[in-house]
Structures
1.
Amino acid sequence: MAYQINGVNIPQSIYDNGTAVPPDREALAVNGQGTAIEPRLKTFTWAWNSLSKADYEWWTQTILADALSLRCAARLPNRTWVETAYSVVIVRKPTTAGLKYGRYWNVELTIEILS
């Protein structure tokens, strides 16, 4: 698979070691007729017990260029794990418990899918 952020392939080492949770369909509310209303924003999350310094910096430096977020296009799995092209996503800076023994621990990345 060739998942991408802003036209850049996500390295296999990042893809293989994380737990990805693609956007699921959840009801935001129910209208007066009992029909579920879906939120416009969908969230893709990716978590790692640990990431190498190089893989963490791939997100923070290569993709985000030291910014807190990036608005771009992406190719990611949808809720049924089919690779899907999204025209607008917001990649947020990953959170972490810190750097220890050359690895970042308890890393979580959020990608908000707008369209």
2.
Amino acid sequence: MFWFWAFISMFGYALQNVLMTRYVRKIEVLSAGFYRNITFFVSFLPLLYFVPSDSYSMVHTFWPEIILACFLGAGSQWTRFLSLRYLPIGTSSAVVLGFNVLFSVLLGWVFFSEVLSFWVLVCIFITLAGSVILSTLKNDAPHLEPASVIKGFLLLLATSVMLTTAFFFVAKLSRELDPMLSAYVWESGIAVAALVFITGRKLFGGAGLERVSLKTFSKIFWCVLPTLLGTAGFALAITLGPLGIVSAISATGVFVITGLSILLYKETLTYRHYIAMGATIAGVVALRLLS
């Protein structure tokens, strides 16, 4: 069952990413992020069934970490969604995955004095090289802006800085509280943080929340629902086998995302994209197995 839940987790997250991209490219990105995460208030409720009752009484003691993680999550989602206007989703996913792992390793080295072995440094170089090359390759998809590839790269860099820092706080919450409760509070809280950003933008003369029809919102709900499979599958898999292998399997979801994006959005890639993507994923998988 370990392998089953690990692959279910990977596929759930990959499917949600691809399906949600359709609405990220149609709706203003902060609004899209709000609608995506507001669905978690309902869709993630089944996860709370597994949460010990005493964990709820401890939530209030972690409000500073929760608030910071939610705002960082909303900010990273904003920049990630915006990057999908300029880059194919397969490329974007591979680059942000590579950067996330690199920043995670650097955080461990800086704050926890974790030793970087020779092979870890080799994997870092491969991952970084693959990510940088991949993010600078142009694409021919007519619905994207190929002239803004560098803008997409910089947006993904900002995404990884914020997301990795948010993961640091969420990991702390998961250890102190409960993984399922932490996931629910964080994902739902991102919706609140996104609404705060939107409100602040409107107060300074920018756009407010983009309204969508009930039909569109219901479609977003079904697009996001596979995240429940991803989160539940991950939580079950790490109780049955090594975290490193689960993380390595999750990294291969980039290839599922790429395949689905070709089918749904006609985002075909060149052989250069696939070589750079393969190098990035190989480096990420190796890093996660070594850690």
3.
Amino acid sequence: MYSAETMLQMLFNVFPQRIVSGPVVSHECVECSALRDQLTGMMWQDIPGDFINANDGALPLLSHEAYVAFLPAWLHQAVLDPSGPAAGMVLINLHHEPDVSGFTHRQAKVIMEVARYIVHSSIWGPKDPGNIESLAEIERVWSSVES
């Protein structure tokens, strides 16, 4: 098991900093407007942890381009607080029919490592049935990402 510091370094190593050129959200609603206002022109490392915790369930609302660009911010927050709101929602998002297109094999490997870290470091631990099920599905889905 990697340390939190190593996990964070892995995120910085495999996920480039980039600004989303297209739409940040896939439709218009109050919640999406707030996401668009906050995330437009941002790179993932610049998104505040408080924003991520307040919008822990927002990943499905992002456009696919924004999801690929900003997922590392949610992963980063989950590593910092593996029992926090973002961590729980990241596990759900990563295993519930994620669109893995646009991710590299190296990024998928880090995503799986972050999921393992969350499961092993959260207050529920690796023996929690929900964690076992989530991790198995995350590994099944994300291991399919090709080089």
4.
Amino acid sequence: MQTSPTFQIGNQYRVTRDYTFLNHSFHAGELVIFAASGYSPHEGVTRYWFTSAESGQSNAWHLFDKDQQIALFEPTTDA
């Protein structure tokens, strides 16, 4: 079983590489604010919800149980 990433609600993160799944996408260098997470045992996926610091648009990172965890976000001290 993989270890879940640790995010703090309200903290800002920088996207380290492009990611797209369904209608959710993040772009390298983008600043996002962590909002929430939720796990679906039926689908075997944890969704991590972020809000773009620039546009305010909400997007989710989908991490499936069967997938390897990827380093997609890094904490930032940007205001």
